[in-house]
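Holo model, NDP. Inputs:
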Amino acid sequence: MALQAALLPSTLSSVPKKCSLAVAAKDTAFLSVSQKKVQAASLSVRTRVATTAPVATPGSSTAAKDGKKTVRQGVVVITGASSGLGLAAAKALAETGKWHVVMACRDFLKAAKAAKGAGMADGSYTIMHLDLASLDSVRQFVDSFRRAGMPLDSLVCNAAIYRPTARTPTFTADGYEMSVGVNHLGHFLLARLLLDDMQKSDYPSRRLIILGSITGNTNTLAGNIPPKAGLGDLRGLAAGLRGQNGSAMIDGSESFDGAKAYKDSKICNMLTMQELHRRYHEETGITFASLYPGCIATTGLFREHIPLFRLLFPPFQKFVTKGFVSEAESGKRLAQVVSDPSLTKSGVYWSWNKDSASFENQLSQEASDPEKAKKLWEISEKLVGLA
Ligand code: NDP
Ligand code: PMR
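Output:
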């Protein structure tokens, strides 16, 4: 991380060669000599990562000889595409040749290695720096993305952290409790800013997807394993989730609980998707969706859990609950939500049955409460500086 932070300031990004020169020239004007050295180092990294322009130039639909229009290659931004579900979905989408994937990641070098390791073809993806634990970084990402000149057809808010063993809260650059700061607030700002870009896209089916989870839904067995998710009256969030002289928990409880903070953040993700749907679907035609991809028990999400949990969790999910799903299969599920022509309905929380067929799932009462969604929206707007 330290190496990455030193080499890659957040204004830098990897973009297809076509646009990277323009970005580099513009950026260089504002950089000091030492910064230029840093940028030169990163440019060599980024050319290795994104070597060719997308297969069909994003932004234009091509007229075929018979006069029929061919849909151009879509551009999808996936946050946290450096591991687990995000990486698997990035690979699944890139492999179709129909999508150029922008991998929005906090650790550029890790993402580059992950993409190569997954066998993603050069030119099928672009890596751009995004640290959701900093609202400045979110804004810089949006700026870099716009400068790269690509259209935006789909956005997947996938990145997350889970801190089940943490006894005390940690905080984002803006001072918000980390799990809610990264999983909800960072994505809330990103989605709000990029909505403008999605509205400009001429792609036939534009989709904005936010990952939810079964553990945030108390209408399920998994959602009833303590600690249970619950936002209460949002008083902790309204007070700024600061911790000192206040609460780091959304419901305002005095004691910090890392597992609950994650589950609470997932309720926020599902409520945000529905509020986006209510506010923007009719006006923009954009499809808003959330999903529970299955229990992907092998991912990095559980990296902070105790070793015994990490050992037993995958076989427990495979053989006892039978809720287990491989990273590759979960990636295909998410890819479906991005691009399957049959999943265009907006406001839906998708899940999959045993035969891996998708269905519209029921959210818990709290995760589908419109009043709470509105209140969450208004408080979140203030916290990220939009109101
Ligand atoms: P992983 O830990 O494998 O992936 C999470 C990704 O988020 C990583 O790429 C990580 O980056 C990134 N990330 C973390 N913090 C930040 C940050 N501050 N800024 C930018 N990126 C960040 O977990 P999963 O693949 O399992 O999780 C993906 C999504 O799926 C999450 O939203 C999770 O809630 C959801 N989900 C997962 C389930 C499961 O069983 N695993 C079940 C239900 C939902 P880095 O690689 O640098 O650490
Ligand atoms: Mg859970 C129907 C059974 C089912 C499913 C689908 C999950 C998914 N879990 C189920 C059941 C149980 N879990 C049971 C019976 C137990 C008690 C032994 C149990 C325990 C458990 C723990 C300790 N489960 C967990 C944890 C975690 O730390 C994970 C978590 O809550 O992360 C927030 C987790 C999960 N169980 C799941 C899924 C998908 C997770 C990961 C949660 C997520 O990403 O939202």
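Residues 162, 164, 213-215, 221-222, 225, 259, 262-263, 266, 295, 301, 321, 323 surround Protochlorophyllide (ligand 2) (CB under 6 Å). The domain at 74-384 is CATH 3.40.50.720 (Rossmann fold).
Archived with the compound record.
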